[in-house]
Write a structure and sequence with these properties.
Layout lengths: L3 E4 L13 E2 L15 E6 L1 E8 L2 E8 L3 E9 L2 E12 L2 E6 L3 E22 L2 E22 L2 E21 L3 E15 L2 E6 L3 E10 L2 E10 L11 E8 L3 E7 L8 E13 L3 E13 L3 E14 L1 H7 L1
Antiparallel strand pairs: 1-8, 2-7, 3-6, 3-20, 4-5, 4-20, 6-7, 7-9, 8-9, 9-10, 10-11, 11-12, 12-13, 12-14, 14-15, 15-16, 16-17, 17-18, 18-19, 19-20
Length: about 300
Amino acid sequence: MNFMILLLTGASLFSIDGLGQDMSVFQAPFMYIGKYARIEFTVRPEWTLLRQESDIRSVFWSNPFQFYITAPVYRGFAIAAGNRERFNQNFDVHLANDDLRLHVISRGGVEEVFGGVGYRLPLGELVVQGSYLFGNTYETWDYAIGDYNLVDTFLYAYTGAVLAAGVTTKYLSCYFETFGTLDMTKPSMDTTFDLPQRLGVGVHAPALGGRVSAAYEYSWWQEEYGFRAPHRFSIAYDRDTYGFGYRFNPWYLERVREHGIDLSYKIPLPYLGMMRLHLDCALRQTDNAQEFMIAPQIELSIRELFVRRRK
């Protein structure tokens, strides 16, 4: 059968496979411990344009609100906690030919709540972080064959955990994620996924009045699930108020490749902290589909309020 695939609303078309879009790529556990506590709030809407052969569709969605807090506690030790999205499973897809029309809607995903302890080194920090994973996904499959219609609904519940640790210095950084599991429960079957171990290595050096960073990440996804183990890398340049970077992010799903760029600008907020404006753009593609993503991100970091309160 020759299907035509149209993405109407949702996140990435490619989230329909596997566990969905992996949102934890290049998410290092480092706290960047300072002298004072800080709170961060992040909002990230996203627009996606899909091109499937001669068909083009645009979509919009918004990531969940993200929160992060870190604070020094005693003689170089600090604690941190926050939340973020781990896997996104939102999509709304039409598949059709002369005999069959299929409409699949999915809403939900896997969230991550994490907490960690860090220790400030003379030129860096050592961090250990644990995460609890949870979430629900609700799928509706609407079939139309001739004059007949059939609707099936599926509910998936997820729970899991993962552990990460890392060390960073002025010029080098390394982090490792392990002991990750994710239990998926639905009425007829329970499945446990072993999340991949993940290794990240970074190099940082002052250059051109700012700092140049390069990172490499490898994830040991298991082939028994039909996944692949991708090699990823990124490079970035940062100055006091602005920065930009490039990343190569092949997905753990076969044939999905992603190239992305990120632009950032920092706005100091006197007596409050800092606002960071990011513009993230990416091109995702397979052999027969292309997807362009653009996501502005606003991050508010509140720090100096704590300094004023201690005076």
